[in-house]
Automatic annotation (TrEMBL):
PANTHER family: HCA OPERON TRANSCRIPTIONAL ACTIVATOR HCAR, TRANSCRIPTIONAL DUAL REGULATOR HCAR-RELATED. Signal peptide: none annotated. This is LysR family transcriptional regulator. The keyword Transmembrane does not apply. The keyword Transcription regulation applies. InterPro entries: LysR_HTH_N, LysR_subst-bd, WH-like_DNA-bd_sf, WH_DNA-bd_sf. Residues 5-62 form the HTH lysR-type domain. Belongs to the LysR transcriptional regulatory family. Coiled coil: none annotated. Keywords: DNA-binding, Transcription, Transcription regulation. Gene3D superfamilies: Periplasmic binding protein-like II, Winged helix-like DNA-binding domain superfamily/Winged helix DNA-binding domain. The lineage of its organism: Bacteria, Pseudomonadati, Bacteroidota, Flavobacteriia, Flavobacteriales.
Length: 293
């Protein structure tokens, strides 16, 4: 290269690549449009690569430019994490771990793990966000998150998955439903009831496993509602819009108006797994993973 590229050149490039408009990108960067155009042209000359196709009224990325955009965005994210980790260590903080989780993981699994980990790493800090399975996978692949708790059978290449909890399913019924633990025999007793289930978008593999329960009992359920939130399921069940099937870890005494029947005699179990990106070099992640055993 004729000239040494600097960090600002990368940020200039990303701004133009995202806006595909030199004036808008220049305004966002608080520099002049001619100055930005010169910097991008210089970058292309230094690389010996054409990054943009310039037309009278629009700008388009070349194939090389599109590739570079993806890689530089990831590089800048990595750099931000490195600087953030450096600052945390300087401030006496052991590290920052970003969690994603499905709601059922927050009942016992995550709190217990965090308490145990914090006892041994009191200077570590955590940030937690409830996300559906797919959003967690996307965040892990883009390195926006360090670790996720999901209900999935498999994950994309590059991610590692490890089961942490295998559990029974539970029926969720309105408190006044005539069937209870004493007179429950099988799911067949509910073939005429409406069901409220987790949406297949929550997890296609989880949804398929629930449907297998109905297949084994010889009927197709009447699905009245789909949702991705347990709280919505409980509210709908309480108000007699239907009944539901949820993981046992979502069984709680704090929900009024519903009752639970654990399904101990069916073959289907649901698995909660932890998933992370193999390329994640966050030092605190490796420490945390040792506590999963």
């Amino acid at each position: 290269m004729k000239h040494q590229l600097e960090l600002r050149h990368l940020k200039y490039f990303v701004a133009v690549a995202e806006d595909l408009h030199f004036r808008k990108a220049a305004e966002r960067l608080f520099i002049s449009q001619p100055g930005l155009s010169r910097q991008i042209k210089q970058m292309e000359n230094d690389l010996g690569v054409k990054l943009f196709e310039r037309h009278n009224r629009k700008v388009e990325l070349t194939k090389a430019g599109s590739y570079l955009k993806t890689e530089i965005i990831q590089y800048l994210k990595d750099l931000d994490r490195i600087f953030n980790q450096t600052k945390l260590l300087n401030d006496g903080i052991g590290g920052d771990l970003k969690f994603g989780y499905v709601g059922s993981a927050m009942q016992k699994i995550i709190p217990n793990l965090l308490l145990k980990f914090r006892n041994e790493n009191p200077n570590a800090q955590f940030s937690l966000k409830e996300l559906d399975n797919q959003k967690q996978i996307e965040s892990l692949l883009s390195h926006d998150m360090d670790i996720g708790f999901v209900r999935l059978e498999r994950v994309p290449r590059g991610l590692e998955i490890k089961p942490v909890l295998k559990e029974n399913f539970c029926l969720v019924l309105p408190i006044n439903h005539p069937i209870n633990v004493t007179n429950f025999k099988s799911i067949k007793q509910f073939k005429n009831d409406a069901f409220i289930l987790f949406d297949s978008k929550y997890s296609a593999s989880y949804f398929e496993k629930v449907m297998q329960i109905f297949d084994d009992n010889g009927f197709t359920p009447i699905i009245a509602h789909n949702t991705i939130h347990a709280s919505s399921i409980y509210k709908l069940v309480e108000n007699n819009f239907g009944i539901s099937i949820v993981p046992k870890s979502l069984q709680t005494q704090n929900v009024k108006g519903v009752k639970f029947i654990e399904l101990t005699k069916i073959s289907q179990k649901t698995v909660l797994s932890v998933v992370w990106n193999r390329k994640n070099r966050n030092p605190i992640l490796e420490k945390f993973l040792t506590h999963l055993d």
